[in-house]
Amino acid sequence: MKLKSKGFSAILLAVCILLVLSACSSNKQTDTGSAGSSNANQGSNAGQGGTAGKITLKLWYWNGAISDSTIEAAKTKFPNIDLQAEKLPSGDDYLTKLKATLVGGGDGPDIVAMDSWVTSMLTYKDNFVNLYDQGARDIQSQYLDWKWKMAATPDDQYLIGLPIDVAPVVLYYRTDLFQKAGVPSTPADIANQVKTWDDYLNVLKKVKDATGSTTGNLADIFNTAMGQSSQAYFDEKGSYIGDQAVVKGAYDLAVKAYQAGVTFPYTNDTEKNAAINNGKISSFTGASWAVGDLISAAPGTKGKWNIAYPPGGVGNQGGSFFGALKSTKHPKEAYEVIKFLVSPENLVTAYKEFGNYPSTPEVYTKPEMVNKNEFFGNQDLSEVFAAAAKDVKVAHVDPRDDMVRTAITDALVAVDKKQDPEKAWKDAQTKIQRQLSH
Amino acid sequence: MGGLLKEIYKSRALYLFISPFYLLFLIFSVFPIFFSMYLSVQKWDGIGEMTYVGFGNFTYMFTDPTFWQALVNNIALWILGNAPQLICALVVAFLINMTIVKYKGFFRIAYFLPNITSMVAVVIIFQSLFGSEYGLINFLLQKIGLPRIDWFSSSFGSRTAIAAMIGWRYMGYNAIIYLAGLQRIPRDLYEAAVIDGATTAQTFFRISLPLLKPIILFTVMMSTIGGFQIFTEPQVLAGTQSPYPGTDTIVLYMFREGFNYQHYGYAAAVSWVLFVIIGLLSIINWKFFNRSDD
């Protein structure tokens, strides 16, 4: 009896350990499992390796990086590839997860979506497949040059990502309120008459007097102005230039707008959205992806908005890339999949679906790009985006940008809370210098 | 020693049974603890090479005004969020425990419910309550003729908002713990006191409070540990990067340094200092409550 129970407990124990072990390696289990089952579904295609007869490529992206229908199209296009697309939470979480994978190696994805921080990944380029080796030179001419260069080393020998979309900055404004204030209110008039930031500030003053409404907060103005510059916080050699004319200029501009009383207080998004819906914010500068945000934030103002070429010139805020990790066993296939996902036709699909503006200028003039939106009084948004996407100047990106931007944004928030602008600026610079020293 | 090993070998099946937990504990808890200790004297961006910096991380921390500000904020939030809340919890528990109160079960559940709601959802609700332009509280203030308060632009305002969240969430939890403690106190003590002509207040201060001391120590310790790990509230309110004035806590500071700026070694050093601070405060709590025992 005693022996029997011992034998029984040994079996139980074995089961427990098996459970634990299988939990650890559950990824692998499901991988082969799903590869096997989808293989059975679609019939066995001639395999290029892999035990299941077709190869598995794991792809990481976040909601909105690429349209789900494009991924489905890729699955149909490459029957011998089992494309496993995993949608991850966007933002900082995604970047953290990607970095952890780069450190840990192991069972990571093959293809990854990257945001405009792609340039900071060039430091770790050895972890990525050089897409030039896979033939990316052949398709280079299809893409916006400035966008392409963001994912290439300065000597243009190593490319870690292919461009997906760009995010040209435009001016969003309430046509009815601008008309009421007697300022230029058609996209063409604004493009011709509101060229500089000073012009825009003058317009804002008149709009404020006539309607009591303002532009976004002072950090919005600072970010837009920075996006229009070919210099940011660090130069190509990595030296800090965030205390010099360009950044100070953008800072001063934001402060000037604040002092003119035309900015909305610095608040959270809920408050800001309410203000947009209530007509308290009548214009703001924002990237193309703000279209969706605006529509959901301010349903009460449908039909009253328009977009125009932005004051101060073109700029870019965001826009993603697809790259392949060096750890992939199938760089060739991964490249083919990426190439397909970011092909001009598929980018048009994504634009139609949720407004990611393509990085391939050849499609800008195509009839299927016409994007008349009821929310914007049936204006064709593509016309403005096409103009705003060209000739963007891209500043050097550094991994430490985030830290500097945070410190300066903090200073702007302090100004918004009645602190002396010069003191806030000096405090921010001291803080940045301290941070840079460690 | 040999005897012990023999004992272990004898009941090896049992040890094997409990081993899964200990294996996972080793991998996911013990190893990270020692690794973070090692990390705290290194400089590491998470991907590149580590470089040994000795106590460099600690000297940087102790000379960093942002760190000290975070510590001050943390202490302020801890006191604001916990002192009033614990007192209320005690009163609530005492009231529920009174014989004249009916539907005790209902009250227990009603007070405990906030504790199991999602923290992020709570923060979002409170965010719209305390909104400066369109918040419900400001709306009510204006209705009764008072001026609007710009909650998140001053340290006091934003700390009040966060303290309100902590209080709302943990008051019921602590009340339930106090209630359990109160029910442990024999009824005859109260009955004897009533016969002697004691008032309710007297029974509370002379009987309930002294006998609850160990329970109070427990809740104070738990809120100290919790209070120094405040993260979600300020993070969801304003994001990791630029928290509202007066709400940049140590954990938020550590998270930002580690995961936003990739100073992993430094973040590990901060976490060890936080560990020492919480340890010290727990010892102080312990001493304080033990001394007043005499």
**What integer value in Å does the Rg of chain B equal?**
24 Å
Strand order of the largest sheet of chain B: 1-2
Distance between the termini of chain A: 67 Å
Strand content of chain B is under 5%
Strand order of the largest sheet of chain A: 2-1-3-9-4
First-to-last CA distance of chain B:
42 Å
User: How many individual β-strands of chain A?
Assistant: 12
Counting DSSP H or I runs of 4 or more residues, the number of helices of chain A is: 17
- Please, what is the average pLDDT of chain A? 85
Question: Overall 3D geometry of chain B?
Answer: globular
- Overall outline of chain A: globular
Class by alpha and beta content of chain A = alpha+beta
The helix content of chain B, as a percent range, equals: over 70%
Biggest interface reads: A-B, 38 and 38 residues
* Helix percent band of chain A: 40-55%
Number-wise, the strands of chain B total: 2
Major sheet of chain A, described briefly?
5 strands, mixed
Q: Please provide the ordered H/E string of secondary-structure elements of chain A.
A: HHEHEHEHEEEHHHHHHEHEEHHEEEHHH
Indicate the low-confidence ranges of chain B by residue numbers.
none
Note the beta-strand portion of chain A. Answer: 5-15%
Fold topology:
The complex is a heterodimer of chains A (438) and B (294).
Chain A: H1 2-24, H2 26-42, E1 55-62, H3 68-77, E2 81-88, H4 92-104, E3 111-114, H5 145-149, E4 162-163, E5 165-166, E6 169-174, H6 175-180, H7 187-193, H8 197-211, H9 218-227, H10 245-259, H11 269-277, E7 283-287, H12 290-297, E8 305-308, E9 321-324, H13 331-341, H14 344-354, E10 357-358, E11 372-373, E12 379-380, H15 381-389, H16 401-416, H17 421-436
Parallel strand pairs in A: 1-2, 1-3
Antiparallel strand pairs in A: 3-9, 4-9, 5-10, 6-7, 6-8, 11-12
Helix pairs in contact in A: 9-10, 10-16, 16-17
Chain B: H1 2-10, H2 12-39, E1 42-43, E2 51-52, H3 56-62, H4 65-97, H5 104-112, H6 119-129, H7 136-143, H8 155-184, H9 187-195, H10 200-211, H11 213-227, H12 232-238, H13 250-260, H14 264-291
Antiparallel strand pairs in B: 1-2
Helix pairs in contact in B: 2-14, 4-8, 4-11, 5-8, 6-12, 11-14, 13-14
